[in-house]
Amino acid sequence: PSFDEIKAFRDGHAKVRKGELWGMINDKGETVIPTDYEEIGNTYSSSGVYGKKGEDFGIIHNGNFNVIDGADKVWNFHGDSGLTYARKDKKTGFVNSKGEWVIAPDFDKARAFSNGLAPVAKGKTWGYINPKGETVIDFQYRDAEVFSETGLAPVKEKDWGFIDTSGNLIIPMDYDITAGLAFLAGNNDKGFLGDFARLKSKKGWGFFNTKGELL
User: Fold this and answer.
1) Are 73 and 63 in contact (CB under 8 A)?
2) Could you identify which of 72, 154, 178, 210 might form a hypothetical disulfide with 145, taking C-beta atoms 3.0 to 4.6 angstroms apart as the criterion?
3) Long-range contacts from 39-45, C-beta under 8 angstroms, 24+ separation
4) Is residue 182 classed as helix, strand or coil in its secondary structure?
5) How far, in Å, CA of 155 to CA of 161, rounded?
């Protein structure tokens, strides 16, 4: 008991606080990142963990703190894409483990890369880009989420449906995918968990498989 605070473990790692500064330990209690940071991400990744030291945001990777030029907010790495998203001057782009801007901060909003694609917004419409920043699925949705491991992502017009990585609509946009405020509290995941997704119609809740079939 040597820390002032320990957050929940995720994938064998937890953020910890001594005084006003944060670091990270593994499930053996070993220090993975020293408690040197005013702010730190809560998800450990081989690509790095974001942190804040003084006025600078950066990526903590291989023992180095790689400052991201002009960033005022950074999100956790997701999966093995090697990129995470960050904000500069109210615009969002993507950075690598070295803290370099790989995709310029030109988007109004963004979410994580998964299956080689990331949802990004220009104005009020969402589309998907590849790691080169090229548009793969056109900007046409009111909202869009990350792809699951099964290769389907929730997209929204008036209601939610699911597309594959080619942009084909697999499940029509006729459903709700959240359970009210429970999702906002982090208690429910949007989209597929394994081979199944939980969706709601006017009749009630049900489950779909990856073929778009109601079970």
Assistant:
1) no
2) 154
3) 40/15, 41/15, 41/74, 41/75, 41/76, 41/77, 42/7, 42/8, 42/10, 42/15, 42/76, 43/10, 43/11, 43/13, 43/76, 43/77, 43/78, 44/10, 44/11, 44/12, 44/13, 45/76, 45/77, 45/78
4) helix
5) 6
Give yes or no for residue 188 having a pLDDT over 80: no
Query: Could you read off the pLDDT of 140-183 as tens digits, one per residue?
Result: 999 999 999 889 999 999 999 999 999 999 999 999 987 554 44
Spatial separation of the C-alpha atoms in residues 174 and 148, rounded to whole Å: 19
Asked whether the beta carbons of 48 and 67 are under 8 A apart, the reply is no
Overall residue count recorded for the chain in this entry: 215
- Over the stretch 112-123, which tens digit does the pLDDT of each residue have? 999 999 999 999
| Res 80: pLDDT | 77
Burial class (CB in 10 A: 0-12, 13-18, 19+), 153: buried
Tokens of 4: 């002032």
d(CA 181, CA 188): 9
pLDDT digits (tens, 9 = 90+) for 21-79: 999 999 999 999 999 999 999 999 999 999 999 999 999 999 999 999 999 999 999 87
